[in-house]
Design brief:
The complex is a heterodimer. By secondary structure, chain A is of the alpha/beta class. Chain A is 32% helix and 26% strand. Chain A contains 17 helices and 22 strands. Chain B is an all-alpha fold. Classes of the chains: A alpha/beta, B mainly alpha.
Chain lengths: 503, 433
Amino acid sequence: MRVELKGITKRFGSFTANHQIDLVVEPGQIHCLLGENGAGKSTLMNVLFGLLHAEEGEILVNGEPVRFANSGEAVRHGIGMVHQHFMLVPVFTAAENVVLGFEPTKSFNRLDHKTASAKILELSKKFGLDVDPDAVVENLPIGLQQRVEILKALSHDAELLILDEPTAVLTPQEIDALMEIMRSLARDGKSILFITHKLKEVRAVADVITVIRQGRIIDSVAPTETENQLAALMVGREVNLIVHKESTELGDVVLELKDVVVRDDRGLAVVNGVSLDVHAGEIVALAGVQGNGQTELAEAISGLRHVESGTISLRGHDITNHTPRQILDAGLGHVPEDRQRDGLVLSMSLADNLVLNTPRRAPFARRGTRNLGAVDDNATVLVERFDIRTTGIDANAGSLSGGNQQKVIVARELSRPLTCFMASQPTRGLDVGSIEYVHRQIVNQRNEGLGIFIISSELDEVVALGDRIAVMYAGQITGIVDPSTNREDIGLLMAGSTVGTHD
Amino acid sequence: MTNEPAASPTDTPVDVARDVSTPATRGWWARYSSTSPITLTVLALILGVVIGAFIIMVTSAPILDSWRYSFHHLGSIGSTLKLTFDTVAAAYRAMVTGSIIDPTLFFHSISTGQGWDQTLTPISETLTYATPLVIASIGVGIAFQTGIFNIGANGQAILGAIAGTAMASMIHLPMIVHLPLTLIAGILGGAVCGMVPGVLKAYTGAHEVIVTLMFNYVVNAILIYVLTSTALQLPGQSNDISRNFDSTATLNPLFGTKSGLRVSYGIFVAAAVVIFAIWFLKRSSLGFDFRITGANPNAARASGINPKTIVLTVFLVSGGLSGLAGIVQAASTTHYIDGGFLIGSAGIGFTAITIALLGRLQPIGIVWGSLLFAALGVGGRAMQAATGIPLDLATIIQSVVVLFVASPVLITEIFRLRSSAESFQLANKGWGS
């Protein structure tokens, strides 16, 4: 199917999310839409899928102008969308999910499970997407859940498939499998619109790459462009993707975990006997697919979650089950996984957020009275030093972009004396420019001799930053490897296999 | 289906752009037509007055009769309109002159230098009523800013008044220590009363709304009990009435007891509380902790703030201020307490919740809110005396103001205000799915 967008303009109030977008997707083409967060990719796709309505411009399907009042009409015209967050019913089987809304029925409106399963099997075979139709969705790994989503779109005879950031939640192996599926669908003549901000993936799978920045099409390029060229198009300036690391002397152990066991809110031991050392002057990166206990481990280290057994110490001081205040004072810098939930008060000013966990420390307060002058001076200095883009130090933290919010937290943590710096998903949701910046800051601190512990589910990040990579799976460390290790092997460790561990 | 716009509000550069256009950089018309809290409150008051006028019309028998007559004899419509207008105008004139100042008396006093007491009585009464309201509302407001819903201000005020009354009537000291000790006893009484829900919330997770609300009833029972106990009961009485305060423990009228103006040194206590609250919220480390906790409890915990400590100190501060309001009320007006103290419509602890919200939890806003509520109450009584229109009209206006302030969308629709933020949201939602 050939889909053409002509002069699409979409505004929200005075803000133009899409400006005069022209885009053509040819049959059998994998068309990548590359852009930073907030560039307008998802808005454009929502316009195409009938969820939003453009102020200007038109959509042509096989040369015919169409108008979609809602997503149902888009589906009838052969457009399918797989959302970043799956729209599946967790307690239903794969087959039930696929036929949901268009259920085959027997007499008396009884659901015809047999026909439903048969339909799935037929689709699976046709497109090479293996899914057990009777498996309950919540028991399936994320990669397979995504296949169910894709099958669901295909079951409505989708000729154009929109994949919105489909790789964000997948392991490297699952990403490879998804790309294979995309290629085979394209061979069958399906058109694919693939939305992402990850450069590696686009180069691996795209036929055409369209770069979008601040709501405008910047360029359409071939996948032969280098990553640096693509990044420059995306950000609008040269970006250095290679993190330069000097070799440093290893210092003392600054963070030591010994047989740490932590339970989650349901009482399950999601961290089950983790032992790990972080030395001064090195970056230890904890890799792993989201949901394998990393979040709870970080919470336990920062004092937000009870440690069931085992010990955590900072430069030899036992901090197990100390209060967050004591642990902060002992010199743990912490960039939380969810910056808006745990790291910032969005309704407060930038200046206040920059002293959020040191409000009583001199010179910010004296005998219970805050010194607002010192707080403002501190903010002015840090905004300058960490290049935080803001309208002023009085602006609410909520008015900043995601990247700048992260800079606020990094600036706050790095501006006080630290023993160890721990960052959970430090670049999640950030654009390339901000990622580059945060990475450089982290490496600088390491070069200056700080011990750094990074928790990330982005393999690229783990490999780029880590001096040693620990892989976590199902609450345990399945291996500690060198960053030069084959990515396949790290991927296997992330999937729980201990085969192929190199020391 | 997601109808989430691609540009999630926090991730786009737009927000920065929108924030640049703060009211300060725009003209007065834009400021008027934007939805600032002050504009909203003033417009809500106007709506309250208009609705009040309508209610006067439909509840006044002469006006209704006149309208009925005019439907049959159209020629008399003029006199009907005049009657309607005169009645409404008389009511509101009585309300304003009865709560602020009567211009006629004012000019008479100016020219003759006589009768100042009578001239200043309305404003003095309004200030007298506003004084404990300001203190209690600030106590409630500080708790609300911390995300703690202290619905028990009334009980805390009563317990504060009981403790203060005991200090004021049973111990005899020179004024320089007796009055401060009385006020401190009030603060402690309120704080102790606040600590019960505080401890329950901090250590057992009991929900403060339920506990504080129910504790009001417990305190009512305690009040009756202590007022009929030999220690506090006025000797020789069988009623639930306390001993009188020593004259060394009262907040005396500013212009002397002979003037007849009741406004007392209590307003200095209220002013001190306002100044304390402004300092506390803006400049103190503890107040900063409170605000962080209220705005984002997760971030507060991650920043090393101990939620238990915060809950306990909030109840100490909020309960203490409510207790102070209770003792100021007793020490500046009656100089004793009885079984009807702060019961029913006199329950300043409940009015304080409304005023705290009306004042958007900010000390200065609370001062204005308290003055408004006190003036409507005092003016309402004057109106009832002068025109026979019941005091309930004042309550209706109060309620309408709160109703409209609580639902800004109604105001913006009625007055066709433009509001960039709202229309932005509408744009998102309207085309959603």
